[in-house]
Design a protein that fits this description.
heterodimer; A: Rossmann fold; eight-stranded mixed sheet; 38% helix; 16% strand; B: alpha+beta; FAD/NAD(P)-binding domain; D-Amino Acid Oxidase, Chain A, domain 2; 3 domains; 24% strand; globular
C-alpha cells in the first residue's frame, strides 16, 4: 500500500491513503480502526476504476488526537470530511462507512445531499434508528456507558495488561493491532471521546430534530454475526432513505464485515457505486399569499 | 556521541533502552536475532515485576504484546487430595496491580524495542560477535551483514541473559548449580482450560506448569530430573511433552492440555542458576537481568528481577553524571540482597517440588499438612508475588528451612 499523506483541516492533521484514478470513493473506518481496516477494498476499488481516499479519522491511526471531548462531535468530524474532500478538489464522492464511519457517512449524506454520489453503510444504521434503541440494542451497547467516564474508563480498560479492553474486543477485527494502536500517546482517550461526545446519556436527552432525508442511492450491509449492532438498525434505516435503498445481509460476517468478508464487500461496492440515480430533493410548493 | 550501548534486546535490555532514550540519552540497542521470534523464555511476570514495568514506562508493551492477567492458582498436585485442592487468589498481593501476567516474550520485547526506537534509540538487529572491553572508555565491537562496527560509549549495559556473554568478557565469574532440567512450549486450542487459572504441581517424575495467555493459548513448562534429560529430545519429543500432562491430579486427567496444539518450538534446557562471585559490573560496564545472576526458574521471578535491575540502573544513569562503579553501589547491594533471598527460596521450592519418588511425595504431603496447620510456613510462596524485600525475614533463616525439612523428613 502506498504511503499515507497528511493534510491539515479543521485544526487537525488528517492522515489518508489516496490510491487509484477515477470517480472518488471515501472510505470511513470505525472504532478502534484506522484506514488499515480497508486494506482489502482499497486495491479492489482502485483496480475497478475508482480513486480511493481512506482517511484515519481524527483520534485514530496517524491523525491528530485532540484530548477534549468537544473535539469529537459528529458535526465536527463531518466537517473534517468536507474539508478533506474540498482540499483534494473532490466535489461529489461516493461515501462508504463502517461502524462510527457509517454514522459519519449517514450524517454526511443527509447534511450534504449535493456533495454525495452514492452512500454505502456497513454495520451501523441511520442515527434516527439509534436514537430510539430497543432494550436489546441498549444491552448490546453496554460498553458505551462504560466509556463515558474520563480517566476512569481508561484506567479500567488499561489495568491488568488491558484485560477488560481485550475481553470487550475478543478475537474480532484486527484485535492484535488495536491494543498497539490504543497504547499510542493519547489514542485511548481520543477513541473513547467519540462515545463521550455522541453517545452520552446526556446527549440522548437533547431534543431530537427531524432528520433531512437521504437522497443518495444507499446500500446497507450488515453481518449476521454482529454482536454489537443489531439488525434493527439497518432494517429500520429504510424509512430515512428517499433514494433507492438496497439492503444486503452477509451471513458469514460479524461486526468487522470488511475484514470478515473482504471479497463480498469489494464485490458489493463495485456493483453498487455509480449505478443508480439519486432521488430529487423535494421542491416545496411556493406559498402564495 | 553514544551514551549507552545495551547488549541484548530481551526484557532487561529493551526496557532499559526505553527508559534511557525517553530520558534523553543516546542509546544503541544490540540484539543478536535477525527478527524477534519465540525462543521459549520465561513468560510470567509477578505482580511486583508489573509495578517495575509501570515505573519503567513499558507497561503497555506487555498488554499490547499479548499479556494476560492470571487470577487464580489451582494447587493441583499428586500430594493434594481432590477435595483439598485450593484456588489461591493472586490478585490481591499488591493493591492496584492485580494478578501476575503471562505473555509471549518475543512479542513484548519487539514492542519495547520499537518504543525505544520511537524515543530515539538506535536498534541494531542481527548483531553478532559482540565484544565488550571494560574501562574508563569502554569499547563495543560487533558485526552485522554490513560489516564490522565499533562504538565508544560512556557506558555499556550487559543484558545477554543466562549466556552471560558480556559478563565473561569483563571477568565476572559465576557460581553455577543445576538441580533439574526444564522444557517449554507454546500451545493453542486450550479451550476447556479456565483462562484465569494457572497450575503448578508435581506428579510422577514431572513438575508441570500451565500459564494461560488468554483465548486458548498457554505456555507450558515441565521440570524433570536430570537423569532422564533427553526424554523430550528427538523425534516424537513434542508428542511426549504434551502427553506428559496426562496426570491424575489435573481435571479430566489433563485432557485440556494433552489435546492442545503446538504453537511454537519445544525447547529443553538444563535449569542452571548462577550467582556472581563478585559485583556484576566493571568500570564502564554494568550487568542487568539474568546476566547479573539468577535463581532457579521454578520461582518465576527472573523477569521481575530483570525489570527491577533495569529500573534501578536506569534511575542511577538518569539521576546523575557520576557513572563510576561506585555510583552503582546501591544497585549492587540491593541486587545481592535480593538474589540471596531468591536463591534461598528457590532452593526450598526445588527441594520440595522438583524432586521425585516416594520419599519426595511423602515429604510434600507432610509439608502441605504443616503449611495448612501453620500458615506462616507458606512464607516462601510469597516470593512469587511480592518483592523479595517485602517477604518476612524469618522465611530466610536456616532455622526455618531446617525445621521445614526436619519436620517433614
Amino acid at each position: 500500500m502506498t504511503e499515507k499523506k497528511t493534510v491539515r483541516v479543521n485544526d487537525v492533521d488528517i492522515a489518508y491513503v489516496d490510491e487509484g484514478e477515477g470517480d472518488p470513493v471515501i472510505l470511513l473506518h470505525g472504532y478502534p480502526d484506522s484506514s488499515y481496516l480497508w486494506r482489502h477494498q482499497i486495491p479492489a476499488l482502485a483496480e475497478g476504476g475508482f480513486r480511493v481516499i481512506a482517511p484515519d479519522l481524527r483520534g485514530f491511526g496517524d491523525s491528530s488526537k485532540p484530548q477534549e471531548i468537544e473535539a469529537y462531535g459528529m458535526q465536527t468530524i463531518v466537517n473534517d470530511i468536507v474539508a478533506l474532500t474540498s482540499k483534494l478538489g473532490i466535489r461529489r464522492p461516493h461515501v462508504v462507512g463502517h461502524d462510527w464511519g457509517a454514522a459519519i457517512a449517514w450524517m454526511y449524506a443527509f447534511l450534504m445531499p449535493r456533495r454525495i454520489d452514492h452512500l454505502a453503510v456497513l454495520s451501523v444504521g441511520h442515527p434516527g434508528v439509534f436514537a430510539r434503541p430497543s432494550i436489546e440494542q441498549r444491552a448490546a451497547s453496554w460498553y458505551m456507558l462504560l466509556y463515558q467516564f474520563p480517566g476512569i474508563s481508561e484506567e479500567l480498560l488499561r489495568r491488568n495488561g488491558w484485560r477488560l479492553f481485550k475481553e470487550i474486543m475478543g478475537r474480532d477485527g484486527d484485535h492484535d493491532r488495536y491494543l498497539r494502536d490504543m497504547a499510542r500517546p493519547g489514542a485511548l482517550t481520543a477513541g473513547l471521546n467519540w462515545y463521550r461526545a455522541n453517545r452520552s446519556p446526556e446527549a440522548e436527552l437533547r431534543p431530537a430534530r427531524p432528520f433531512p432525508p437521504v437522497l443518495a442511492p444507499t446500500l446497507g450491509i450488515w453481518g449476521a454475526g454482529d454482536q454489537a449492532l443489531r439488525e434493527e438498525g439497518m432494517l429500520g434505516s429504510a424509512k430515512f432513505v428517499k433514494g433507492p435503498w438496497r439492503y444486503e445481509r452477509v451471513e458469514e460476517a460479524g461486526h468487522w464485515i470488511p475484514l470478515d468478508a473482504p471479497e463480498v464487500v469489494s464485490k458489493l461496492l463495485l456493483g453498487f457505486l455509480g449505478t443508480e440515480d439519486s432521488a430529487q430533493a423535494e421542491r416545496r410548493p411556493r406559498r402564495r399569499l | 556521541m553514544t551514551d549507552v550501548v545495551i547488549v541484548g534486546g530481551g526484557i532487561a535490555g529493551a526496557s532499559a533502552a526505553c527508559k534511557l532514550s525517553a530520558g534523553g540519552l543516546e542509546v544503541v540497542l544490540l540484539e543478536k536475532q535477525q527478527a524477534y521470534h519465540d525462543l521459549v523464555r520465561g513468560e510470567w511476570l509477578a505482580p511486583w515485576g508489573i509495578r517495575e514495568a509501570q515505573r519503567l514506562g513499558v507497561y503497555d508493551c506487555f498488554g499490547a504484546g499479548g499479556a494476560w492477567e492470571i487470577r487464580e492458582w489451582m494447587t493441583w498436585d499428586e500430594a493434594v487430595d481432590d477435595d483439598e485442592v485450593e484456588a489461591v487468589d493472586m490478585t490481591g498481593f499488591i493493591p492496584g496491580i492485580g494478578g501476575p501476567m503471562s505473555f509471549p516474550h518475543h512479542a513484548v520485547c519487539e514492542l519495547m524495542a520499537a518504543q525505544a526506537v520511537g524515543s530515539g534509540a538506535r536498534l541494531v538487529m542481527d548483531a553478532s560477535r559482540i565484544q565488550v572491553t571494560a574501562g574508563r572508555e569502554p569499547v563495543v565491537t560487533y558485526r552485522t551483514p554490513e560489516g564490522e562496527h565499533e562504538i565508544r560509549p560512556r557506558m555499556v549495559l550487559g543484558a545477554t541473559g543466562r549466556g552471560c556473554t558480556v559478563g565473561r568478557q569483563i571477568g565476572v565469574t559465576m557460581r553455577n548449580s543445576m538441580h533439574h532440567w526444564g522444557g517449554g512450549m507454546m500451545v493453542e486450542g486450550l479451550d476447556s482450560w479456565p483462562a484465569d487459572v494457572q497450575a503448578m504441581g508435581t506428579e510422577g517424575d514431572v513438575m508441570f506448569m500451565v500459564f494461560p495467555q488468554g483465548f486458548g493459548r498457554a505456555r507450558l513448562y515441565l521440570n524433570f530430573p536430570a537423569e532422564n534429560k533427553l526424554r523430550y529430545r528427538g523425534e516424537g519429543g513434542v508428542e511426549r511433552f504434551l502427553a506428559a500432562f496426562e496426570l491424575d491430579c489435573l481435571p479430566d486427567r489433563g485432557k485440556a492440555v494433552t489435546e492442545a496444539v503446538p504453537a511454537g518450538p519445544l525447547s529443553v534446557w538444563p535449569s542452571v542458576s548462577s550467582v556472581p562471585e563478585g559485583p556484576p559490573l566493571a568500570e564502564g560496564v554494568v550487568l542487568i537481568g539474568d546476566e547479573a545472576g539468577n535463581a532457579d526458574t521454578v520461582l518465576g521471578t527472573g523477569l521481575s528481577c530483570a525489570m527491577r535491575d533495569s529500573r534501578t540502573v536506569c534511575d542511577i544513569l538518569l539521576g546523575s553524571d557520576d557513572w563510576s562503579p561506585a555510583a552503582f553501589d546501591p544497585y549492587v547491594r540491593e541486587r545481592e540482597f535480593r538474589l540471596d533471598r531468591l536463591a534461598f527460596g528457590a532452593d526450598i521450592v526445588s527441594r520440595l517440588h522438583v524432586e521425585f519418588g516416594e520419599e519426595a511425595v511423602e515429604r510434600r504431603r507432610r509439608a502441605r499438612r504443616l503449611m495448612a496447620k501453620n500458615f506462616a510456613a507458606q512464607v516462601t510462596g510469597l516470593l512469587n508475588m511480592v518483592a523479595p524485600e517485602d517477604v518476612p525475614e524469618f522465611g530466610f533463616s536456616e532455622f526455618f528451612a531446617e525445621r521445614l525439612f526436619r519436620e517433614t523428613a
